[in-house]
C-alpha cells in the first residue's frame, strides 16, 4: 500500500500492474530524454553568439524533426495498445464476484456459490485494532484465491461509484443499471487496499475496498465457514 512521501506507484501485485509499471518507466525515460535534448538546445542557442546557416534553412533537419516525433509516438503507442488489450482480456475465470456500490459501502456476491455474499463497511476509527489502517479497513474483506483469474462484475444501486485497487491494476466504474466487468490475478498472498474513485456523495471517502489474496486451500476453508454461517442465519 502507499506510504507517506512515496514518489512512485505501489508495488505491483498482479501481472497487469507489473506491465503498467514497466510501461510507465518506458514512457518516463522517453520524456526525460526529450526534455534533456530540448533543454540543451535552448541553453546552446541562448549562450552562443554563433549562427549555423544550415540549421536556419535545411531540408534534412526538417525531415528529421518530422519523422523522429512520429517514431517516438509509435514506440509509446504500441506497448500502450498491448496493455489495453491485456486489461480487457478475461479468459476462463476461476471465480466470479459481483461488487455492488451503495451509499456508502460495498456489497459482494460470489456468484459461483449458492448463498455467499456480504456487505463490507468501513471500520470506524474508534473501533480499529492496533496495526489497522484508518479509513481503509473494512469489517468484511473480499477474499480471493491467489494465482487464479478472478472476474469482477461491477455495478451500483444508487449513484456512480468506482471500484479501484491500485496495487492490482484494477479500476472499473460502477454505473446504476449497467454491469461492467474487469479481471485480475493476484500474484502472491497479501492484503490489498483501495477506495471508491468516483465522487459519490457526502461519505465518498468512507467506502474502502480490501482484497485479501490467500492460498486456494485457505480460500476453500473460508468459503465453507461463510456458507455455514449463512445457513445458520437462514
Rough shape? elongated
Low-confidence stretches: none
Q: Report the major sheet.
A: 5 strands, mixed
Structural class: alpha+beta
Give the CATH level 1 class of the largest domain.
Answer: Mainly Beta
CATH topology of the largest domain: Immunoglobulin-like
Please give the radius of gyration in angstroms: 24 Å
Beta-strand proportion: 25-35%
**What's the average pLDDT?**
91
Q: What is the correct CATH architecture of the largest domain?
A: Sandwich
Count of domain modules: 2
Query: What is the rounded distance between the termini?
Result: 37 Å
- The CATH homologous superfamily of the largest domain: Cupredoxins -  blue copper proteins
Transmembrane segments: 27-51, 63-85
Family: Belongs to the cytochrome c oxidase subunit 2 family.
Membrane topology: Multi-pass membrane protein
InterPro entries: CcO_II, CcO_II-like_C, CcO_II_C, Copper_CuA, Cupredoxin, Cyt_c_oxidase_su2, Cyt_c_oxidase_su2_TM_dom, Cyt_c_oxidase_su2_TM_sf
